[in-house]
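Observation: inputs received (chain + adenosine-5'-triphosphate).
Thought: call the complex predictor directly.
Action: predict_structure
Action Input:
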Amino acid sequence: MRLFFALWPDDAVRAELARWSRELHALCGGRATHPENLHVTLAFLGSVEEAHVAEVERAAGGVAMQAASLVLDRPGYWKHNRIAWAGPSLVPPELAALVSGLRGALAKSRIAFDTKPFVSHVTLLRDGREPRAIPELAPIEWRLAGFALVQSVTLPRGSRYEVRRSWSA
Ligand code: ATP
Ligand code: MG
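Observation:
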């Protein structure tokens, strides 16, 4: 199964992200992320055998997390992959610590993951064209109270993400 760790929004934050996604979609076109799939990827494991999932969960269970506030105040667009996203001007130190703690725990348990540096963002749409100007959008305040292990399920209409398990700060 395909797995990744993520920050998973509550319904209020999800609704605000979906609003940003609609605003950017009006400018960029492309494929908007389904609101129920919106997230921040912390570590991407990719394919994991069923028999190894318990080890993944054990590693995550040992990670210390402190609650934090993530303010998404920056809509943006990356030309290289045609993605429009929501990001923070400042990554809270608690989030940076969570990512390094989590990735460190995975490495220590010899669980493979993509080691590309963490870039804090929510993908709002894919295959969009570059907007003439990035709109101003009301900042989204996200109280980070935990993180989740998410399974990516491939369906004919695209991927659907399901939280398998979550851990609280
Ligand atoms: P699909 O690959 O089916 O088109 P998807 O990219 O939305 O759909 P996944 O590939 O399962 O779904 O990715 C889940 C999440 O992990 C997404 O946020 C995606 O951007 C991120 N991700 C995917 N591959 C990697 C990777 N190699 N390194 C880091 N993050 C990744
Ligand atoms: Mg993918």
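Thought: report the result.
Final Answer: The two ends are 26 Å apart (CA to CA). The CA atoms of residues 32 and 125 lie 4 Å apart.
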